[in-house]
Design a protein that fits this description.
Elements (H helix, E strand, L loop, with lengths): L1 H12 L9 H10 L28 H6 L13 E4 L6 E4 L8 H14 L1 E4 L3 H5 L2 H9 L19 E6 L31 E8 L7 E5 H6 L3 H7 L3 E5 L1 H8 L13 E5 L1 E3 L6 E3 L6 E4 L4 H17 L4 E4 L6 E5 L3 E5 L10 E6 L7 E2 L8
Parallel strand pairs: 2-3
Antiparallel strand pairs: 1-2, 3-13, 4-15, 5-13, 5-15, 6-12, 6-14, 7-8, 7-11, 9-10, 9-16
The structure holds fe (ii) ion.
Fe (ii) ion (FE2) binds next to loops.
Protein name: TauD-domain-containing protein
């Protein structure tokens, strides 16, 4: 594993550029300097192997904030609170996340549950507090997920990293596709997929590498009541097998540290705090609808994926600036990376803190999941 980190370091030090205005040169100059976040570079240890995840009781911190007399008081110091779209996303300035106490974090969880996505600018203190703080932050919101295949900083398997530079990528990127857009809800194949998720970039390209989000509450609301009523009766298989095979083929560091799982989730889930219903299928991990014929399943899923893909009216796009921290509720949103910066060779390095939440609650009472 040290091998991988050493490989990155060598790649960073071997380029000599001459065109000083070229983005490629800028990228390499950026990478020739001692890297400020070298301790957070992706690490892959083939010997690292973990047992299957076990079920646990999730107590959502947003529930505590429901009883608060003013559950938005954590925003009282904000200099700017801007709704990105009517139904998804809020951008905040003037609130230092690193200073939020337990009550403030509960309120934050509720606000993210209500808005789906929160973007906090100027979070230098949060980012510079480092990996032990990231873990303590995430544990407030739930048991931290250990990703089975992605890179993590050495000694911190609970931190999920995205990483791409001029010489390497440790992301899940499909070849031979007309687009890098891949809508998904993170690791939805787990029995208890993530809830409130925190993500930030340590390095970013000069331009590009934005992140797309969509509200799965809104995508559901666009559908007709009789069709939604049918969807509520359905469950689907979510699978981690393809992601594991991607790594087993030698990509992304080539490590599978936990055997892949498949789990059955309702197509329409209910948020445990807000009670809102959200569509819960995604092109990356959902494989088939239980109990339907193959053609029925494929046609319904492809219709839903197409609906998610093209509904700009449900989506928001986050443009990164240094020291931005983004939080989303993985239960009611989907997102996609945009890999439009590859030719620049610039480094994009991000870290995700991923607390797991409850097993998805069916919108239809009593729906059989096993
Ligand atoms: Fe993701």
């Amino acid at each position: 594993m040290a091998t991988i980190v050493q490989t990155i370091a060598r790649a960073d030090s071997t380029f000599v550029g001459t065109l000083r205005q070229s983005p490629h040169v800028q990228a390499q100059e950026q990478q020739e300097e001692p890297y400020r976040y070298a301790n957070l570079l992706p690490h892959f240890d083939p010997a690292e192997h973990f047992p299957p995840l076990t079920p646990f009781d999730h107590a959502d911190p947003g529930l505590r904030a429901l009883a608060h007399p003013n559950p938005r008081s954590f925003l009282s110091s904000a200099t700017s609170v801007v709704e990105l779209t009517p139904n998804l996303g809020t951008e905040v300035r003037g609130v230092n996340l690193a200073k939020l106490d337990s009550d403030g974090r509960d309120q934050l969880a509720l606000e993210v549950a209500r808005r789906g996505l929160l973007v906090f600018r100027d979070q230098e203190e949060f980012i510079n507090r480092g990996p032990d703080f990231y873990l303590a932050w995430g544990r407030h919101f739930g048991r931290l997920h250990v990703h089975p295949t992605s890179g993590h900083p050495q000694g911190y398997p609970e931190l999920h990293l995205v990483y791409k530079d001029a010489k390497s990528t440790y992301n899940f990127e499909l070849d031979q596709s007309t687009t890098t857009t891949m809508w998904h809800s993170d690791v939805s194949y787990e029995l208890q997929p993530p809830g409130l998720t925190t993500f930030f970039l340590l390095s970013q390209p000069t331009t590009g590498g934005d992140t797309l989000f969509t509200s799965q509450v809104s995508t559901l609301k666009k559908l007709s009541p009789p069709f939604v009523a049918f969807l509520r009766t359905l469950t689907a298989v979510h699978s981690g097998v393809e992601q594991a095979e991607f790594s087993r083929s030698g990509k992304r560091g080539g490590v599978v540290r936990r055997e892949p799982v498949e789990n059955v989730h309702p197509l329409v889930r209910r948020h445990p705090v807000t009670g809102e219903e959200a569509l819960y299928v995604n092109r990356q991990f959902t494989r088939r609808i239980v109990g339907l014929k193959r053609e029925e399943s494929n046609n319904i899923l492809n219709f839903l994926y197409d609906h998610i893909d093209k509904s700009g009216d449900n989506q928001a796009r986050v443009k990164w600036s240094p020291n931005t921290v983004v939080l989303w509720d993985n239960r009611i949103t989907a997102h996609s990376a945009i890999v439009d910066y590859g030719e620049s060779g610039e480094r994009r390095h991000g870290a995700r803190i991923t607390p797991q939440a409850e097993r998805p609650i069916p919108a239809q009472d009593g729906l059989q999941l096993d």
